[in-house]
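[Discussion] Sanity-checking designs against the backbone

I'm trying to build intuition for which residues belong where. Below is a structure token string of 199 positions. I'd appreciate it if someone posts a full sequence so I can compare it with mine line by line.
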């Protein structure tokens, strides 16, 4: 629903006063007219547009999904709180499209650097941590560059280690979901929780 900011009115600035707007003549009285301005469709004045998902326990299964992200979302933040898996395969995030959704599993450029080395993936946005005992604290921010092109940056504390990374992908349609899984797709989650924020 569109929201209109107050009606048309005149505003008079004192002659030579501080803050005369562009076009005002110093030493004279200048009147500026405020015209009606309408916020974009779907926006409400004063509202918050950060929407939190529902935190999910990352204590079982090979993947954790967050569907039903609105197609208008331009940024999704995936947050890790003490997340661990049963094996050594890196944790990664895959993006979904459509109502299904359908998760994209190829075409990613993703790279992360940490104290113990590097890790990369073409099947998802990879995170830091490669040991079964690793617990991950941090977040990955996935932002819309333009159209269906998305880029990401991430930073994590992992047990006594830490690191950061980035990546990008071009999707076939609007993003509507994210999936947290592992590169091999078979290691299971065994500790922690995961949530998202979208805007």
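Best answer:
Here's mine. Compare freely.
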């Amino acid at each position: 629903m569109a929201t209109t900011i107050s009606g048309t009115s005149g505003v008079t600035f004192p002659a030579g006063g501080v803050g005369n707007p562009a076009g005002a003549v110093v030493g004279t009285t200048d009147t500026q007219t405020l015209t009606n301005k309408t916020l974009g469709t779907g926006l409400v004045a004063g509202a918050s547009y950060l929407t939190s998902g529902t935190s999910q326990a990352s204590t079982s299964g090979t993947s954790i999904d967050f569907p039903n992200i609105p197609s208008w979302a331009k940024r999704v933040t995936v947050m890790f709180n003490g997340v661990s898996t049963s094996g050594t395969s890196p944790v990664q995030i895959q993006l979904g499209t459509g109502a299904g959704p359908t998760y994209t599993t190829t075409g990613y450029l993703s790279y992360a650097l940490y104290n113990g080395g590097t890790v990369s993936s073409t099947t998802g946005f990879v995170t830091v941590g490669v040991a079964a005992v690793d617990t991950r604290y941090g977040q990955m921010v996935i932002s819309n560059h333009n159209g269906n092109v998305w880029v990401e940056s991430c930073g994590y504390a992992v047990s006594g280690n830490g690191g950061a990374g980035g990546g990008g992908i071009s999707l076939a349609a609007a993003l509507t979901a994210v999936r947290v899984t592992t590169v091999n797709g078979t290691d299971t989650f065994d500790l922690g929780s995961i949530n998202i924020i979208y805007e």
